[in-house]
Amino acid sequence: MELFQLNNHVAIVTGASRGIGKAIAVGFARAGADVVIGARDEEDLVTVSNEINDLGRRAIPVSG
């Protein structure tokens, strides 16, 4: 992960409530990024947001 550090960056991930989108959003957070996550299901977004927050990063869920 040393080659993939995203400290002080913000990532935007759509389709982030599950599957590949969720894995990408969590991966960005593990690399140090704060993440804006978007999807249709607000409940699932809150779950992913909490997981990202538990990693010490900020997550902003946007449902639509």
Could you describe the 3D structure shown?
It is a single chain. With about 60 residues, the chain is of the alpha/beta class. Helix content is about 40%, strand content about 25%. It has a three-stranded parallel β-sheet with strand order 1-2-3, with helices on one face.
Distinctive features:
64 residues; elongated; 3-stranded parallel β-sheet
Helix/strand/pairing class, anyone? alpha/beta
> Counting H and I runs of at least 4 residues, what is the number of helices?
2
* Helix/strand order: EHEHE
Helical percentage: 25-40%
Mean pLDDT metric: 95
Radius of gyration: 11 Å
User: Which geometry do the CA atoms define?
Assistant: elongated
Q: Which range does the strand content fall in?
A: 25-35%
Q: What's the end-to-end separation, in Å?
A: 32 Å
Question: Which strand order does the major sheet show?
Answer: 1-2-3
Q: What's the main sheet like? A: 3 strands, parallel
DSSP E strands, number: 3
Query: Which residue ranges are poorly predicted, with pLDDT under 50 across at least 5 consecutive positions?
Result: none
Give a brief outline of the structure:
This protein has helices at 19-30, 42-54; strands at residues 10-14, 34-39, 59-63. With 64 residues, the protein is an alpha/beta fold. It starts with 9 loop residues before the first strand and ends with a strand.
Strands, helices and their partners?
Layout: E1 10-14, H1 19-30, E2 34-39, H2 42-54, E3 59-63
Parallel strand pairs: 1-2, 2-3
